[in-house]
TrEMBL record:
CDD domains: NAT_SF. This is N-acetyltransferase domain-containing protein. Gene3D superfamilies: 3.40.630.30. It holds the Pfam family Acetyltransf_1. InterPro entries: Acyl_CoA_acyltransferase, Diverse_Substrate_AcTransf, GNAT_dom. It comes from the Eukaryota. One of its GO terms (molecular function) is N-acetyltransferase activity.
């Protein structure tokens, strides 16, 4: 049985329900259900491809997602963003625990399909997770973003930090869109793996709560 989730709603900001995007389209943010496991996995594959990884790197199966997200002891929750009933993004998150601060939320993945980028959908998903964290009394919300760059034929991912011979100025591309997106939301970069965190103060600032 999936964990119960409550969340306030603020049009075009956060919350479960239908919002109007920057481009005037309607996007619905909702909690995923067991019937969505195929859709979730498809979006995970989309994220892997965006991160320059082959589809085969996604080892999790629909049965595992069903068991772990919607079984007797669910270990994650997932938000879906939909336009006219078609999923165009997701945010997968779960509790983690700080021995100094207590219960926190960790955002494992946030992804919006290329066709819907620039509409504010990613912000809606992230802010809705933040609103859930705030309502549930979590002390912080954390996540990581890849800081990859392409040097010739080499792709250096955040999961594999190692030295390379190619000079940094020769790199053709870095994951700046995602990093700039998170920075604009007030997230704090912690180290070179790009750990990002919203504490209690930043959560309330993000949500516009005094």
């Amino acid at each position: 049985m999936a964990a119960e989730t409550s969340c306030p709603f603020k049009e075009q900001q956060y919350g479960l329900g239908t919002h109007t995007t920057k481009k005037g389209t309607k996007v619905t943010i909702r909690l995923a259900t067991e019937a969505d496991v195929g859709t979730i996995r498809k979006l995970i594959v989309g994220l892997a491809l965006y991160e320059k990884e082959p589809e085969e790197t996604v080892e999790v199966t629909e049965d595992e997602l069903r068991r772990d997200g919607f079984g007797a002891q669910p270990v994650f929750r997932c938000l879906l963003a939909e336009v006219e009933g078609v999923a165009i993004g997701f945010a997968l998150f779960f509790y983690n625990y700080s021995t100094w601060q207590g219960r926190c939320i960790y955002l494992e993945d946030l992804y919006v399909d290329e066709s819907a980028r620039g509409t504010g959908t990613g912000t809606l998903l992230l802010k809705t997770v933040a609103a859930i964290a705030h309502v549930e009394g979590c002390k912080r919300m954390s996540w990581q973003a890849l800081d990859w760059f392409v040097c010739g034929v080499l792709v250096v991912m955040g999961r594999e930090r190692y030295a390379i011979d190619a000079p940094r100025h020769s790199c053709e591309h870095r994951n700046t869109p995602a990093l700039d997106f998170y920075k604009a939301l007030g997230a704090n970069r912690l180290d070179s793996w790009v750990n990002l965190r919203l504490g209690e103060k930043e959560l309330t600032q993000l949500l516009g709560i005094s």
